[in-house]
Amino acid sequence: MEPFAGTSLTDQALTQGEVLATQWRVKADYAWDTGVAVGRFMAGLKEGKILGVQCSECNRTLIPPRAFCELCFRPINRWVELRDTGVINTFSVSFVNWDATRREIPEVPAVIEIDAASPGMGILHLLGEVGDNLDSVLAKVSIGKKVQAVWKPSEEREGSITDIRYFKLID
Amino acid sequence: MRRALETPKELAFEAAKAALDDAGLTINDIDSVVAVTAPDAFDGVHMNTEYFADGAGAKGKPYMRSYVGGGSGVFGVINGWYHVASGHFDTCLVVAEEKMSSALPHPQGAFNAIYDQFLERPLGVNLLWIFALEMNRYMHTHQVPMETFARVAQKNKRNGMDHPSSQSGISGDFTIQQIMDSEVMAWPVQRLMVSPISDGAGAMVLASEEFVRKRGLSPVWIEGVGWNLDTSYWTDRDLYYPRYVEKAARMAYDMAGVTDPRRDIHVVEPYDPFAYKELHHLEGLQLADKGQAPRLVEEGFWDRDTEVGIPSTPSGGLMGVGNPIAAAGMMKVTEIFWQLQGRAGKRQVKREVRRGLAQAWGDLMQVGTVVILGK
Lengths: 171, 375
What we know:
Chain A is α+β, with helices and mostly antiparallel strands. Chain A has helices spanning 11-15, 37-46, 134-140, and strands at 50-54, 61-62, 78-82, 85-91, 93-96, 102-107, 109-114, 122-126, 146-151, 164-169. In chain A, strands 8-7-4-9-10 form a five-stranded antiparallel β-sheet, with no helix packed on it. Chain A has a three-stranded antiparallel β-sheet with strand order 2-1-3, with helices on one face. In chain A, a hairpin with a 6-residue loop joins β1 (50-54) and β2. Chain B has 375 residues and is α/β, with parallel strands linked by helices. Chain B has a single domain (8-105, 196-374), classed as Thiolase/Chalcone synthase (Peroxisomal Thiolase, Chain A, domain 1, 3-Layer(aba) Sandwich). A four-stranded mixed β-sheet of chain B has the order 2-1-3-6, with helices on both faces. Chain B is globular. At the A-B interface, α1, β4, β5, β7 and β8 of A face α1, α6 and β4 of B.
């Protein structure tokens, strides 16, 4: 097959004016109300609690909380306090920022299965106190290890997922 | 290509025209148009498919947009199929376009809106995280060595050298060591195991049996289609296995009358934006048992020149050619088309092929789309 149509440009062609270009910047700010279920979850975080919900039909204890069960398709009204401990379901050691620039000190995002929720129910958060380079993180962190939330002091909490600073390893 | 001079309209036109020319048809033969692209945020153009629809030949025709994130390229063909299968149209032109190079500083920024705005975005997310998390869960569950993923990247990058849209630095003959030594982006994901953002377009003409007969065309047939969506509560799923891909595949196999996919599928184009994803998807497609796709890599079962296995991603795929999202899904379907017609040139697989499968995937690791083509 012959090469297909199309004219390849270098990045420099655009940024250094070798071809004409126009630029535009999106101006778009949003404020989302947190809704019924997530709103109550956030209020719990402000009090230093991780809340979950229970479906009365399938009896699953769910996190993140939701106003309805997506399996049974029924409303959920029962709230339960979960533990602030859990187990690492999976993790990464990330050296990349959102804009694709590189970080020297990696972030360690993880899915954490929260204790007292049904098996496999987790949330995304960050691990902390686990080292500042790939080798040190991999030496400490592995799937299946137990972790606990490290909370902001109560006066700094504002009802946000970041009221938990990170999760740290526990014995 | 990494960055095209052509606008989305111009890219769409080049692909649409090439598909029409190949079929020996003109735009007047086209009854309906499906246009496909990923999030508008990449282009910064509201309703991007309507914007480029003139290039897709949609003016004055029944038209729809097809969109399920990364699954869109294959989903567009599914939408086109039911346009024709409904009996409402004799023909449908499906055009998939993506121009990712316009977003500054990097289109990854546009991807961040995929995460939950309350529980995830405040953590400072980036797109690579979800893939890295899924890959780690997969490699941990099945104890897959990193070298196996490097072999997948090596295979696809070699295959991509023979594709008309190959890219220097992306397609190529890399050693396992080069791939293993490439920069760690979000462990376990490394630079040479990620597909590059790209610009591109692809198109396909679908037609009814009656139209094909009347015009004396030599087509391949759409034998099965399937698609499926899993929950957006992705942190509640076990990421080691793509159930939604299995469900999409089973739907397509049922329709095609495929009872034993490992016998009846002769060439496959699974979605491969990351090296591990190819193996993950091959298992979801039931072409290998859970955890067995990596072992089959070592046996050469997925190689283009296999005589006993199922050649996988002979096109080079997203890893070996590039990842212009919607267009990349379309590239997978067109590769199966060329393989079945025996027109894939240097990419033609060694074994005889009568039926092939293309698959794509998208959103929060949620969507599976599958098309089965046969002679």
